[in-house]
């Protein structure tokens, strides 16, 4: 028995000594939090209540595209093509009465030059609307009698004079395209 006890003691001593040399970690200090370190449990609680939620930076792929605005007026929208009818007038008193030489929006007809858009009168569109007939864009700058109330009806200003306007007569069966309506 004494021999066995000695062997056991020797084994214990060897094990104890081995711990000094082997990286068993028995004497390694436990990690501690110093004053400058935040307790991870507290930090987690704070994040749970105050962390920002990522709702503002939406991915670009889900961004709503800016809708293209198509203006409209009394059910007439930009891009519409309407059946129309043309008459022609000049700046004279026969065509305009007391408004001779001046349009409803204040344009002096004699001042219009080749760089200006041709002018037309209509009551069914806002002033400054743009319409296209046969490849020519006209600016709605004038008003007229009840005949110009009908949708599609245009009175085209004719700088060549009264006789030229009369000679052009009345043109039916044209297409009037609404290029642009004013405002926005
Ligand atoms: Zn005239």
Description:
The longest helix has 20 residues, at 2-21. This protein has helices spanning 2-21, 40-50, 93-96, 162-168, and strands at 72-73, 76-77, 81-89, 119-121, 130-133, 136-142, 153-157, 171-180. It has a domain at 78-180: RlpA-like domain (Barwin-like endoglucanases, Beta Barrel), CATH 2.40.40.10. The chain is elongated. The strands form 2 sheets. A 6-stranded mixed beta barrel has the order 3-7-4-6-5-8. Strands 1-2 form a two-stranded antiparallel sheet. The chain is α+β, with helices and mostly antiparallel strands. The chain is built from 4 helices and 8 strands. Residues 89-90, 92, 94-95, 162, 165 line the site of zinc ion.
Features:
single chain, alpha+beta, two-stranded antiparallel sheet, binds zinc ion
| H/E element sequence | HHEEEHEEEEHE
Largest sheet: 6 strands, mixed, barrel
Distance between the termini: 109 Å
* Unreliable runs: 11-15
Overall pLDDT, averaged?
Answer: 80
CATH class of the domain at 78-180: Mainly Beta
Bound molecules: zinc ion
Name of the CATH homologous superfamily of the domain at 78-180: RlpA-like domain
Supply Rg: 45 Å
CATH architecture of the domain at 78-180: Beta Barrel
Widest sheet: strand ordering: 3-7-4-6-5-8
Helix content: 10-25%
- Global morphology: elongated
Q: Estimate the strand proportion.
A: 15-25%
Number of strands: 8
Summarize the structure in short.
This protein is an alpha+beta fold and 184 residues long. It has helices at residues 2-21, 40-50, 93-96, 162-168, and strands spanning 72-73, 76-77, 81-89, 119-121, 130-133, 136-142, 153-157, 171-180.
């Amino acid at each position: 028995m004494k021999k066995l006890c000695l062997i056991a003691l020797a084994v214990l001593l060897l094990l104890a000594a081995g711990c000094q040399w082997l990286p068993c970690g028995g004497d390694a200090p436990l990690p501690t939090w110093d004053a400058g370190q935040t307790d991870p449990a507290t930090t987690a609680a704070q994040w749970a209540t105050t962390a920002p939620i990522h709702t503002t930076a939406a991915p670009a792929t889900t961004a709503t595209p800016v809708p293209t605005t198509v203006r409209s007026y009394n059910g007439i929208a930009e891009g519409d093509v309407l059946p129309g009818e043309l008459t022609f007038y000049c700046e004279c008193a026969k065509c305009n009465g007391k408004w001779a030489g001046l349009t409803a929006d204040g344009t002096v007809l004699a001042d219009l030059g080749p760089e200006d858009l041709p002018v037309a009168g209509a009551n069914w569109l806002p002033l400054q609307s743009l319409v296209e007939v046969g490849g020519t864009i006209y600016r709605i700058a004038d008003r007229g009698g009840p005949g110009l109330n009908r949708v599609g009806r245009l009175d085209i200003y004719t700088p060549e004079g009264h006789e030229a306007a009369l000679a052009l007569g009345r043109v039916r069966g044209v297409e009037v395209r609404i290029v642009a309506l004013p405002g926005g």
